[in-house]
Automatic annotation (TrEMBL):
It comes from the Eukaryota. This is Nucleoside phosphorylase domain-containing protein. Coiled coil: none annotated. Pfam families: PNP_UDP_1. It comes from Basidiobolus ranarum. Residues 29-230 form the Nucleoside phosphorylase domain. InterPro entries: Nucleoside_phosphorylase_d, Nucleoside_phosphorylase_sf. SUPFAM superfamilies: Purine and uridine phosphorylases (SSF53167).
Length: 302
């Protein structure tokens, strides 16, 4: 493939470098997940017409675009961690006209006793990042982990997710609160690994003190919320609004960090299908304030 621009590489037919979508292949409503299997399961919930468009990029970003109850929607599996969220958000934003809604449907560990199989709907997220400088000889005055300030989700999106998930699972299985986006599944989520020096033995105490309303630990939400809050109106036809991405997320609890229980993976497909349908219901209820990407020539055109 030939790319035209080192600043933001694109093919001559308008595909981005890593996610590899071009205009008309990604809808304004996007559900992003970590696991390809979750995305493929959810793609089965899309309408039969038009046929679902599927695309796997050379960097393993998997996209399924179609309609849910007639509303155009994309489901994109990106893998794990902050860097992949950055590729996803920037490259998708570059090829979609109009305001967007991005919802992450992930998995997480719970901190406040939300049981395995429950759902978290975070209204905000912080990052906990390993402080690499702390692990050098000259680390005076440094902490081993950096905690960022919170980034908010869109309150309307939080409300839609809460509403749809509560209808399916009941209020007592859907928990709100602050999410922690760690840059490791292990060290910055307070997991002990005797093969490495991590200085994370008192991380949970620090979280209790500094983040008393934290309910969950995962690896993508802070960066997703942060980028949505930093998004601009550049791709909009009508440049009246500042932020162009409405954002929210929900995660299934796979690990209860208090009781140390981990999910039985045989139960995951069923949970993902029920939860995935609720997320699709929520995202299709999102009301954009401006005109969306044209159907003409898109993969969701009827
Ligand atoms: C770690 O197992 C992965 O699971 C969670 C974390 O954020 C991390 O990506 O989310 P996903 O199940 O969506 O990948
Ligand atoms: N995903 C995470 O990032 N952490 C967990 O404990 C479970 C799922």
């Amino acid at each position: 493939m030939v790319f035209s621009n080192a600043n933001f590489p694109m093919t001559s037919d308008g595909r981005t470098y890593h996610v590899e979508l071009k205009r008309g292949e990604c809808a304004n409503r996007v559900i992003t997940v970590g696991d390809h299997a979750r995305a493929k399961r959810m793609a089965k919930l899309l309408d039969a017409e038009p046929p679902v468009f599927e695309y796997m990029s050379h960097r393993n970003f998997y996209t399924a675009t179609g309609r849910y109850n007639g509303v155009p929607v994309s489901i994109i599996a990106i893998g794990m961690g902050n860097a992949l969220v950055d590729f996803f958000v920037r490259e998708v934003r570059a090829v979609v006209d109009g305001p967007m809604c991005m919802i992450r449907f992930g998995s997480c560990g719970s901190l406040k006793g939300a049981n395995v199989g429950n759902f978290i709907v975070p209204d905000s997220a912080v990052g906990i990042l390993r402080n690499y400088d702390y692990f050098t000889p000259d680390n005076d005055g440094l902490q081993p982990y950096i905690i960022t300030k919170p980034a908010p989700a869109d309150p309307d999106v939080v409300e839609l997710l809460n509403d749809e998930l509560s209808k399916v699972f009941g209020d007592d299985r859907v928990h709100k609160g602050l999410n922690i986006n760690a840059d490791s599944f292990y060290s910055s989520q307070g997991r002990v690994d005797e093969n490495f020096i991590d200085h994370n033995e008192d991380l949970f105490d620090r979280i209790d003190k500094e983040l008393p309303n934290a309910v969950s630990l995962e690896m993508e939400n802070f960066i997703l919320y942060h980028l949505a809050n930093c998004s601009t109106t550049a791709p909009l036809a009508n440049k009246s609004a500042k932020k162009s991405i409405s954002v929210g997320s929900t995660m299934m609890v796979f690990a209860d960090r208090l009781s140390n229980e981990f999910i039985n993976h045989d139960t995951v497909p069923g949970l993902e299908m029920k939860g995935g349908r609720a997320v699709l219901e929520a995202i299709t209820r999102w009301v954009p304030e401006e005109q969306l990407h044209s159907d003409t020539g898109s993969v969701w055109e009827l």
